[in-house]
Design goal:
The protein is mostly beta strands. The protein has seven helices and 43 strands.
Length: 731
């Protein structure tokens, strides 16, 4: 820990200077300290980011455009202690904050709370684990809340929460925005259009937008067919309406439809050798596969949010619904497990897999908040969540030998959730300088689960069985805060917070482990974290620093329990501790003829598994006590800048760039594989006026290639350098 602290402190000392605690432009009036107020909703009310006694960072749409951000991975790299856990196709991505999220499989609960406009959106395996292009489309800002957020944000906010705020219809002015972008190396075309129409001045408006993103080339090819296997397409449409019949009531309705087609799991995995050690794929970007898989996802969503003022305080009622169908088809299973082109006698191993999920979620929330007059503030609320996930998995083919013939099976599972919660928050102004806070949630989750495994071909050796199970958990989740204003520009705070991730049921059970059905259920994990922080405004700079220590009980860890199993399970493996430091700095300056924005973020995390941490790996129980917690990073650093300068009357030029540096840490629980070290650089140069913007961008300027993750001897590698052009028009 001492070494980590020294690295972070030294980096901060060297780099302290212009930066942005939140990479966002002004959103409200200027604060008393002369800085732009950055508004966030970390405590379910709008407030200046410097007033929140927690580590919070925000990123708005204009800054995102300048930084040449594309998918969720690019966005997350802008936030300290935040990484995207990748293993193949996009639908399997997970967000890890402060080292939480090592326990993750395709249909488990996430370790990070995911929200849109304050409405919970996580759940299910196909698109319910991370954020999609639909979520980022036409966004106003992204808020990342680090550390457990269990009291106000509820389920799964063990490492933190991410809340994406979409743009609302504007009541006072009609507008339109058209954007076209082309990326040359990948032949990717991205088109976006948004129209805002007030239909009754200051009372009713609609906003309609759509996008289409097609990538026709890529970096990974199949030598067998000559095809590029990392092509993709994404499209979505959103319609929203805002009705404000009075100064005390607003009603927002937002409907969306989203479709995506992306590479399958096996497509992206480089397998250097077969099960017997003979060479297989020629290099990390070339495959030898008999089948090429794809993943199709289609989702419809509806959000309804009502805001009102009851005189004594304000209230909000929200409802979120989603229905999603996902499928991965034609997975080359024999390539994934290392039996591609393998013969036993005259018979060749040929295995392939298909999986589908039908998912539906419904949730709602209602809360009342005081008007903040007087020394005492309060908030009371209640929430419910339900979902149903119906998953069907089928493996087929000629397995030849017994362990592979056991893969020939149909697995069908149905998991249903019912969750209710009540929460409250109180703030007390103990003195002119000292504020105290208490947040509390009582949450009950109940899950019903059925599982059936059947043989699906005559030579199958799969062990057939059925399981029906019900489990429930009730948790009390408190948060205590204290912040002290040293003076009008400096604040220190302390935070004791908790978070909770429910248990669940595994579906990817191995045949090679005796009594494998006993591995179906796993228990919740519960985190408690202490955090101390400092926030300051010093001239043109915003500064923030935080140190934290988190203990997670009954931590969920992902393992491959069987030697020939092509899927993974979660196990509770004892307690873990994770600790670290974070630093942010930022500001805006007049330099020469233009304006310069700079921002900096630094973080360092470490941790270890507690005593008697036992897990099953490939059928063997191992003790990983004392090993480092997976996905903790020695160094995670972000630097970004933008410079605007006048050209000719009516036009200005701009330059922007960003760099991300990551170092150290293990990828897996056994500490056998390291997370990749990498340096990534992006840049954009352009010109704009009040209507048009034209820019050229480059991503991964140095063409950095690195190993992202290894899954069952399959290596997943990063993409190379790309560059392109973007043009947009605002009317």
């Amino acid at each position: 820990m001492k070494a980590i602290l020294m690295r972070a402190v030294c980096a901060a000392a060297l780099c302290t200077g212009p930066g942005a605690i939140a990479a966002a432009q002004q959103e409200t009036s200027a604060s008393a300290a002369g800085q732009d107020v950055i508004t966030v909703t970390a405590r379910k009310r709008e407030e200046d980011i410097t007033d929140v006694p927690a580590a919070v960072t925000a990123l708005n749409a204009e800054q995102a455009d300048l930084l040449a951000l594309d998918g969720v991975e690019d966005y997350l790299r802008q936030f300290p202690s935040t990484i995207l856990v990748k293993s193949g196709p996009e639908y399997l991505n997970d967000i890890s904050i402060r080292g939480q999220g090592g326990g993750r499989v395709g249909f488990s609960e996430t370790a990070t709370g995911l929200y849109r406009n304050g409405v919970y959106i996580a759940g299910g395996g196909y698109g319910g684990r991370s954020l999609s292009r639909m979520d980022f489309f036409d966004q106003q800002r992204i808020e990342v809340l680090r550390g457990p957020q269990g009291a106000l944000f509820g389920r799964n906010a063990v490492g933190g929460a991410v809340n994406v705020i979409s743009r609302r219809p504007e009541l006072d002015e009609a507008s339109a925005r058209l954007t076209g972008e082309y990326t040359f190396e990948t032949e990717r075309t991205n088109l976006e259009a948004v129209v805002n129409l007030p239909l009754a001045e200051d009372e009713f408006a609609i906003r309609v937008g759509a996008f289409n993103n097609d990538q026709e080339d890529g970096f990974h090819t199949n030598l067998t067919t000559g095809n590029t296997v990392d092509v993709s397409s994404h499209s979505g449409v959103r319609a929203s309406a805002l009705w404000a019949p009075s100064d005390t009531l607003e009603l927002l309705v937002m409907a969306e439809h989203y479709e995506s087609t992306t590479p399958g799991f096996a497509n992206m995995g480089y397998r250097a050798s077969r099960f017997n050690g003979t060479p297989l794929d020629p290099d990390p970007y070339v495959r030898i596969m008999s089948d090429e898989a794809f993943v199709d996802i289609e989702q419809d969503s509806l959000f309804i949010v009502a805001d009102g003022d009851a005189g004594f305080g304000s209230w909000r009622a929200s409802l979120g619904w989603a229905s999603r169908d996902g499928a991965r088809v034609n997975e080359d299973l024999d390539h994934f497990i290392g039996f591609q082109d393998a013969f036993f006698g005259p018979n060749e191993v040929v295995l392939f897999a298909t999986q589908t999920e039908g998912f539906e979620r419904l949730g709602g929330e209602l809360y009342f908040a005081s008007n903040e007059e007087g020394p005492l503030t309060w908030l009371f609320g209640a929430e419910f969540q339900t979902f149903e996930s119906d998953v069907f998995t089928a493996n087929f083919g000629n397995g030849v030998i017994a362990p592979l013939r056991a893969l020939a099976r149909d697995d069908n599972s149905v998991e249903e959730l019912t969750s209710i919660a009540a929460f409250a928050a109180f703030g007390y102004e103990a003195s002119e300088r000292l504020d105290l806070g208490l947040e509390l949630r009582v949450q009950r989750d109940e899950k019903d689960f059925t599982f059936d495994r059947t043989q699906n071909q005559a030579d199958s050796l799969a062990v057939e069985f059925s399981v029906t199970d019900t489990d429930s958990w009730t948790n009390v989740i408190p948060v205590f805060t204290a912040d002290y204003a040293v003076d009008e520009n400096h604040t220190i705070y302390g935070r004791l917070a908790t978070g909770y991730r429910p248990g669940g049921f595994n579906t990817g059970l191995p045949d090679t482990v005796p009594n494998a059905e006993t591995l179906i259920p796993y228990d919740p994990e519960y985190a408690i974290s202490g955090e101390a922080g400092w926030k300051a405004v010093m001239g043109p700079w915003r500064l923030a620093a935080a140190a934290f220590y988190t203990r997670t009980e009954d931590a969920q860890i992902v393992t491959n329990a069987g030697t020939t199993n092509n899927t993974f399970i979660l196990q509770n493996a004892g307690d873990t501790t994770v600790y670290g430091v974070e630093f942010e700095a930022g500001g805006r300056f007049e330099v020469g003829p233009g304006t310069l924005n700079l921002n900096l973020g630094l973080s360092s995390n470490d941790g270890e598994y507690g005593d008697d941490t036992l897990v099953i790996f490939a059928g063997v129980t191992e003790d990983i006590s004392g090993l480092r917690v997976s996905r903790t990073r020695d160094l995670n650093a972000q630097i970004s800048t933008s410079y605007f300068f006048p050209l000719v009357p009516g036009f200005e030029g701009f330059l922007s760039g960003s760099a991300q540096f990551e170092r150290g840490g293990p990828e897996d629980a056994r500490n056998l594989r390291a997370l990749p070290d990498f340096d990534l650089f992006d840049a954009r140069i352009g010109v704009r006026n009040d209507t048009f913007t034209l820019s050229v961008f480059a991503k991964n300027l140095t063409d950095e290639r690195y190993l992202i993750q290894t899954v069952s001897s399959n290596e997943y590698w990063s993409s190379g350098r790309t560059w392109g052009v973007r043009v947009s028009a605002d009317f």
